Amino acid sequence: MPEITTGFQGQTVITTFEVTPGTAQDVLEALVNAYENVIRHQAGFLGAGLHINDAQTRICNYSQWQRREDYLAMLRTGEMRDRNRRINELCKGFEPVMYDVQAVF
Q1: Which of 11, 21, 31, 83 could cross-link to 68 by cystine, CB 3.0-4.6 Å?
Q2: Extents of the domains making up the chain
Q3: Cα 42 from Cα 40, distance rounded (Å)
Q4: Which own/partner contact pairs does 75-80 have at CB distance under 8 Å and 24+ positions apart?
């Protein structure tokens, strides 16, 4: 489970997926499957959360990794490259962005 703290020394990644109400559940299922079967088993994975807005037009994924290199290594695996191609076909696009926690309230 992710823990949001200002002292976190790992890598935080927030990815936003632009979807339609017609594809939102398909993308969400693909993401849940990827986390259950691949991502959570990768070296350096600490935790993640998936969020969907009420209009079902955006899915947000918050993940934490021990190191930036761990996250990048996961993305480079053949399995995740194939899965990300499929997810990209289901949505308008997605963008992972690496962040540093600045404040917690």
Answers
A1: 11
A2: 11-99
A3: 6
A4: 77/38, 77/42, 79/38, 80/34, 80/38, 80/39
Under DSSP, the state recorded for 73 is: H
Q: Residue 85 in contact with residue 47, Cβ under 8 Å?
A: no
Mention every residue, 6+ apart, whose C-beta is less than 8 A from residue 59.
16, 17, 19, 24, 27, 28, 31, 50, 51, 52, 53, 91
DSSP 8-state class, residue 104: -
Query: Within 10 A of 95 (CB to CB), how many other CB atoms are there?
Result: 9
Give the Cα separation of 27 and 23 in Å (integer). 6
Closest CA to 20 of 96, 91, 93: 91
Q: Which fold has domain 11-99?
A: Alpha-Beta Plaits (3.30.70)
